[in-house]
């Protein structure tokens, strides 16, 4: 039966599932839910734990270690070999756990993006999680939605679906409601909307016939699996770097090996062990895991600040954003509309009151009026209530809430203020058809048949649009020809006060007209009046725009609204200094060359359609700008995809826009983009800090071994297992603390990073070398001193290891800020994880030095308290030296900046 819904009347579906056009009751829905389960597809089988664990070994560095371990075992250095293997396993375990943690964090965030569906339950329109849908539910579709379950359509208005998820065909298909042949193939079942397909156009209602695994897509079991990538350009860059580094290290190890046996006369076996030490020392085992975790922490922090990352690379890109193109309504403004002005042919009324609370008066020339004395006003207000999809609800705490478009809600409020019984008006003039609002045509029209016998069309929309289609205007004495200039002046006046203007017109039609199409509204409309609505800017937006200015980020307002309104709001937001506005029409007339000359300077783009957005993004990108662009409709998808950081609205955005985006704003708020940029910059900083911290350790260790070989020492200052200990233990403590590093105070006062700037700048390479040399000098120095004092090789090595670790502890503080000074309270105490990590590491080092079992494993010996004092003194030198280096760097930089100005 299930297969043939397309061949039966939709009423049969209603009958089968005990439903009707007004939807299920919530009790029925609950029963169906218990019977049929959630509307969910089974999760793809997760990769089994053992496979993920094994995967950790698939890494060039690990191969090198394994080979080293095998040869060490062949040389019968059993202890060394087992420690090397132990380290390999522990390393894999740490990688596995950290990757798992990162993966979980990302999954949790993906959960925040669960799709929603609009459904009728108990005759009320509700938004529910798509998982809650059951058979028999009536689902409302509109453009941009992803169809949430298999539906038999029963009411359709210009519905087109893109069914490529199911049929592979990317052309949108027109849908209807007629009963079809039984053997119609899937692609031709035009009265069905299948789960997973995308509404590209129009509106519809359908009844759910199948959910979850019973849907067509569930049956083929191949929902376009979201590519879960945990890699990013930076990580790939690092991966590449890691491979080169490994080859480089191997080459140096081989050369050293040959040098040792040929020139220094070492034994081959000894020299092999020394070369293994060198390789092990130079390879940053912990780095890849630290980088993954740093990114994951960044994603989590962004989510806490309402920016949900859909594609991991965006975390990095966000840090280098140079231009943000933002919508106005709801993103920069609060989207809490209120009608402030109503203009009719004769008069201009002003409205008082707060928000959606319908208490307030209508004034004319400063005096409250009675609406009965102004029939034209009454007509405008009533039309605004009828051509309207929103509803107004009084909550228990006496607050008022709007369901639907806030602007339409404001029209309802204006109706109540005018003393109109809105429900009665709607019942008296039931709606027979509509043309829904789309941002391309900027109007909405409805067809009504009143109980008293008349029929009429109402259209409301952008005033320029209505002035074009109206030839007449309604006055007290009847309809007369349109005084275009007067209306233009009125629009200008309202817009200059930042009011969004909406015009409204009417046209009587024959009573037998039951369908509304575009021709019907193209002529003969009679202009009734105009509304001026305010939508106050969000206070956070003003602050966020100020931050952008300090951070060298340009903000551009790209809006569908009128130019003068947009400019007035932009001024309130302190977004512009000039009066330049480019409108969609002007954009259309300019060629790419002309537009690209203006695109950087102009900050307000008005009456812009979605396809203009794509052009703007492309032209900005041609000028090497990294662009974030917001959007909410399906038509914004191409621009969102093209932008470096496409940003969709979580509350008012369509599924299509979300799917095209890198990031979704949970609160639709402009300020959240800026928070995300701040976190993006922090992540990048922290990645650099992790590298800057980890690599000198390896550099130092490698130099120590190299120096010892070249100088002909017959016993190395550090054994391979000791080196592995240092690398492992500091990676899981100190380096991890850096991943938690909070934003630097000046992070939003710097210019955006240059696009394509390498992760390892010459300055960073210098720092790595500089610190490597300091570490080598101190560690090697103390080792030699210990030997000269007659201490055993075990003691001398223990001193060397502890010196190295102590260096790292001090250097960790330096690494908290790359160039800023850390010599202040914040510098030492600003990240509590640093302090925990140091505490933990010291405990480990005590065990390493004094626990007999570890002494046996690592070949260490106890050292005296006096020696600890020497170690701490020597190691603290790095703190001072690096701070001096930073001071010099800052000085040179400041001078260079002054010279450049
Ligand atoms: P932004 O792109 O900044 O979010 P916007 O919300 O002003 O701007 P659109 O939603 O595309 O942009 O609206 C453009 C114009 O269309 C509005 O200025 C208004 O004149 C008209 N309009 C908006 N919503 C409706 C509606 N529900 N009914 C009729 N006309 C509308």
Overview of this protein structure:
It is a single chain. This protein has 901 residues and is an alpha+beta fold. The chain has four domains: 5-29 and 112-226, Calcium-transporting ATPase, cytoplasmic transduction domain A; 251-303 and 677-747 and 757-900, Up-down Bundle (Calcium-transporting ATPase, transmembrane domain), CATH 1.20.1110; 307-333 and 539-668, 3-Layer(aba) Sandwich (Rossmann fold); 338-534, Calcium-transporting ATPase, cytoplasmic domain N (3-Layer(aba) Sandwich). Helix content is 50%, strand content 17%. The chain has 32 helices and 28 strands. Strands 10, 11, 12, 13, 16, 17, 18, 19, 20, 21 and 22 form an eleven-stranded mixed sheet that branches. Strand 16 (431-435) and strand 17 (443-449) form a beta hairpin. Helix 9 runs antiparallel to helix 25 (670-710). The protein starts with 9 loop residues before the first helix and ends with a helix. Bound molecules: adenosine-5'-triphosphate (ATP). Adenosine-5'-triphosphate (ATP) is lined by residues 327-329, 405, 407-408, 437, 439, 442-444, 460-462, 500, 502, 559-561.
């Amino acid at each position: 039966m299930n297969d043939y819904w397309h061949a039966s009347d939709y009423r049969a579906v209603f009958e089968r599932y005990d439903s009707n056009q007004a939807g299920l009751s919530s009790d029925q829905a609950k029963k169906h839910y218990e019977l049929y389960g959630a509307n969910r597809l089974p999760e793809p089988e997760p990769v089994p734990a053992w496979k993920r664990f094994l995967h950790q070994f698939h890494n060039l560095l690990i191969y090198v270690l394994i080979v080293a371990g095998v040869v060490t075992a062949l040389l019968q250095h059993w202890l060394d070999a087992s420690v090397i293997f132990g380290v390999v396993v522990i390393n894999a375990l740490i990688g596995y756990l950290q990757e798992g943690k990162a993966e979980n964090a990302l999954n949790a965030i993906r959960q925040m993006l669960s799709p929603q569906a609009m459904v009728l339950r108990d005759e009320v329109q509700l938004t529910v999680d798509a998982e809650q849908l059951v058979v028999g539910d009536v689902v409302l579709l509109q453009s941009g939605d992803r169809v949430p379950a298999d539906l038999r359509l029963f009411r359709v208005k210009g519905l087109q679906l893109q069914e490529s998820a199911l049929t592979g065909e990317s052309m949108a298909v027109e849908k209807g409601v007629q009963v079809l042949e039984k053997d119609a193939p899937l692609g031709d079942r035009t009265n069905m909307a299948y789960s997973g397909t995308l509404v590209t156009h129009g509106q519809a209602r359908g009844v759910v016939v199948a959910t979850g695994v019973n849907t067509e897509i569930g049956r083929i079991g191949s929902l376009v699996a979201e590519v879960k990538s945990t890699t990013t350009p930076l990580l790939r860059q690092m991966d590449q770097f890691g491979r080169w580094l490994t080859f480089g290290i191997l080459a140096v190890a081989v050369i050293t090996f040959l040098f040792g046996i040929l020139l220094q006369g070492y034994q081959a076996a000894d020299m092999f062990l020394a070369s293994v030490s060198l390789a092990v020392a130079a390879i940053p085992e912990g780095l890849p895991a630290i980088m993954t975790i740093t990114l994951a922490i960044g994603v989590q922090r962004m989510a806490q600040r309402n920016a949900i990352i859909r594609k991991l690379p965006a975390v990095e890109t966000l840090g280098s954003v140079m231009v943000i193109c933002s919508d106005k309504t709801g993103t920069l403004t609060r989207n809490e509309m209120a009608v402030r002005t109503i203009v009719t042919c004769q008069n201009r009324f002003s409205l008082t009151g707060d928000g959606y609370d319908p208490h307030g008066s209508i004034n004319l020339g400063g005096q409250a009026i009675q609406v009965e004395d102004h029939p034209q006003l009454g007509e405008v207000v009533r039309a605004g209530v009828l051509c309207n999809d929103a509803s107004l609800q009084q909550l228990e705490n006496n607050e008022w809430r709007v369901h639907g478009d806030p602007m339409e809600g404001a029209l309802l409020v204006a109706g109540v203020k005018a003393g109109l019984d809105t429900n009665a008006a709607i019942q008296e003039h039931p709606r027979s058809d509509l043309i829904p609002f789309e941002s391309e045509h900027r109007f909405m029209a409805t067809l009504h048949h009143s109980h008293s016998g008349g029929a009429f069309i109402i259209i409301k929309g952008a005033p320029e649009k209505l002035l074009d289609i109206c030839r007449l205007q309604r006055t007290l004495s009847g309809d007369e020809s349109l005084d275009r200039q007067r209306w233009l002046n009125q629009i200008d006046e309202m817009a200059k006060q930042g009011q969004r203007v909406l015009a409204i017109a009417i046209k009587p039609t024959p009573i037998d007209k039951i369908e509304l199409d575009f021709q019907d509204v193209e002529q003969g409309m009679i202009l009734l009046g105009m509304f001026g609505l305010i939508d106050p800017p969000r206070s956070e937006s003003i602050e966020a725009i100020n931050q952008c200015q300090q951070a060298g980020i340009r903000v551009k307002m790209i809006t569908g609204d009128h130019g003068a309104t947009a400019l007035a709001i932009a001024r309130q937001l302190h977004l512009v200094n000039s009066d330049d506005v480019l409108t969609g029409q002007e954009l259309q007339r300019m060629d790419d060359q002309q537009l690209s000359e203006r695109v950087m300077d102009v900050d307000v783009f008005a009456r812009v359609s979605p396809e203009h957005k794509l052009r703007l993004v492309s032209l900005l990108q041609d000028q090497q700008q990294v662009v974030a662009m917001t959007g909410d409709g399906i038509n914004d998808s191409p621009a969102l995809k093209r932008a470096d950081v496409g940003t969709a609205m979580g509350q008012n955005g369509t599924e299509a826009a979300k799917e095209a985006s890198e990031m979704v704003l949970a609160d639709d708020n402009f300020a959240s983009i800026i928070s995300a940029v701040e976190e993006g910059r922090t992540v990048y900083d922290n990645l650099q800090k992790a590298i800057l911290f980890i690599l000198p350790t390896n550099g130092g260790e490698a130099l120590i071994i190299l120096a010892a070989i070249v100088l002909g020492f017959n016993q190395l200052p550090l054994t391979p297992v000791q080196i592995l200990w240092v690398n492992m233990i500091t990676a899981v403590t100190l380096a991890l603390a850096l991943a938690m590093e909070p934003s630097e105070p000046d992070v939003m006062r710097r210019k955006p990073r240059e696009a394509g700037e390498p992760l390892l700048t010459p300055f960073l390479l210098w720092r790595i070398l500089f610190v490597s040399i300091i570490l080598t000098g101190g560690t090697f120095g103390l080792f030699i001193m210990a030997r000269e004092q007659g201490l055993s090789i075990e003691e001398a090595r223990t001193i060397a290891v502890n010196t190295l670790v102590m260096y790292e502890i001090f250097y960790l503080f330096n690494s908290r800020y790359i160039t800023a000074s850390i010599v202040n309270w914040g510098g030492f105490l600003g990240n509590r994880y640093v302090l925990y990590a140091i505490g933990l590491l010291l405990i480990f080092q005590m065990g390493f030095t004094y626990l007999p079992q570890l002494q046996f494993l690592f070949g260490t010996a106890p050292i005296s308290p006096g020696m600890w004092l020497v170690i701490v003194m020597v190691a603290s030198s790095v703190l001072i030296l690096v701070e001096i280096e930073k001071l010099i760097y800052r000085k040179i930089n400041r001078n260079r900046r002054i010279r450049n100005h």
